[in-house]
Fold:
Amino acid sequence: MTYVVTENCIKCKYTDCVEVCPVDCFHEGPNFLAIDPDECIDCALCEPECPAGAIFAEDDVPQTQQHFIALNAELCAGWPVITQRKPAPPDAAEWDGKSDKLKLLER
Structure:
């Protein structure tokens, strides 16, 4: 099993989660983070660190967010690894909790 970053990360992109990851499985895109399912060791350290509540265990991903399981794997293939926390975007809090953000995902 792996952990999955879901839609609420889009445009929030808090990076608190990357500092606790012992295997550096997070990848950074322009406005989203993704977890590499081949690197994730299911340690669960990242989930409680996400201020936006956007990280779920694969088995707990909400039904409406299931497509993010494959999307995380796809995006990790082209995005660089991120291992250190960065400041959140200035408008991150405004985007937290908004729905229908997939169309805003920048690749």
In short: The beta strands are 3-5, 26-28, 33-35, 55-57. The longest helix spans residues 67-76.
